Amino acid sequence: MTGQPDRPQADNQDRPAADEPLPEDAGAESTPSADNGELGVLQAQADENWDKYLRAMAELDNVRKRSQRDVENARKYALEPFARELLNVRDSLEMGLATSAGAEPEPLRQGFEATLKQLATTMEQFGIEVLDPHGEPFDPQQHEAMAMQPSPDVEPGTVLTVYQKGYSLNGRLLRPARVVVSAAVDAD
User: Fold this and answer.
1) % helix / strand / coil in the chain, to the nearest 5?
2) CATH code of 182's domain
3) CB 126: neighbour CB atoms within 10 A?
4) Which contiguous run of DSSP H or E holds residue 146?
5) What is the CB neighbour count within 10 angstroms for residue 159?
6) Are the CB atoms for 141 and 173 separated by under 8 Å?
7) What is the pTM for the complete model shown?
């Protein structure tokens, strides 16, 4: 069994046997030698068409397998460029920690700021945006309210404090910003 469909067999039930006489209405043009020649031509065409069919099926199977491999590789290695860029950030943090023993606080802080800037640049390069909604109206599609706090200084429903920034990837929310939202002040 090769996985190929079986070749269809010709239906010989309605065809007279070679030693049987032809029906009288067959006409004078049809002779056994003419039928054999025409049958040979038709058999050659059938063989050629069968070969084309098998080749087309094999090509279709190859395309399907190749597509599956491409999709699998795309899924498996989609983050490769991003991961490669993050290695630089990790290296920078490791070098900072290695040199931090006995270091002055100000140069150490500057090193961490430079590393954070490098990380922000990498994230921006790959379409990751920071959601820092301080002072903006609360949007339940982008923000997660952790608490409500009365505030006479701002309109109700405004973000007062950002506990944790949110992030989006090419417009799709990765993580909502966790915020404190202003509430109306009760008039006593």
Assistant:
1) 50, 20, 35
2) 2.30.22.10
3) 13
4) strand 143-150
5) 22
6) yes
7) 0.58
